[in-house]
Amino acid sequence: MEIPVIDFSKLDGEERSATMALLHHACEKWGFFMIENHGIDTNLMDNVKQLVIQHYEANMKKRFYESELPMSLEKKEKLSKTDWESTFFLWHRPSSNIYGTEGLSKDLCNAIDGYIDQLINLAENLSELMCENLGLEKSYIKEAFSGSKGPSVGTKVAIYPQCPRPELVRGLREHTDAGGIILLLQDEQVPGLEFFKDGHWVKIPPSKNNRIFVNTGDQIEILSNGMYKSIQHRVMAEKNGNRLSIATFYNPAGEAIISPAPKLLYPCHLRFQDYLNLYSKTKFAEKGPRFESAKTLANGH
Q: Which residues belong to any copy of the Fe2OG dioxygenase domain (predicted)?
């Protein structure tokens, strides 16, 4: 099962239509995909990953292995309500807490700040492409996500440490993401991420060639009236090596009200006889405009 790969370099040429169709298919049928040639500085991406790993080794590793979690595994206890991960969370928009986060080096703060600036541009570009495929105004998702200060953007930085008993614990338990568009900078060597599709868990390979892995969250499913799906996923604990995960969430603001886009809703609360009257005049025409007219009738116009 080959995961869709969206080549952003093809969006400006003769292959744009085919690339847009592939993106729509990925959002509709998969709920996850990879992006390549995305325009983000690859040296910056490599620097972020290297500095996060250094931070983990210097500041997080010892504390993790001295916590109660590894001790429980030593007792051969199966852990069903906890996750084998070492994490910290950073906010970027509408305001940033990076430089005030204790223990982060200036180099790491600067690298993450630069990376996120570029990543937000990619997220907003991606949201516009989704809107185009859904037949919405290109700024619809951004405006729907915006509170008084714009969308909310944050990053979960996680290391899934080498686990001596991976059969007893999940790296991260099964879930869907609550928010909007998730862009993942992940490990190049250690696997573990899995998504549930068509009744099977699909293993997501480590990201090669600086690809960014993307999945859609619950709010995109709501906004698209179920056309685009949020998909259950998990992280398996691994015996061989630490897995790096830097997941950035392009989410609605806390006060944003998310509803299905009216343009994507079917007509509702309409008397069937009224629909039949409309149908008799438009039977041999496209049904899309007929549905739009039916919505107008349903609203009392």
A: 149-252
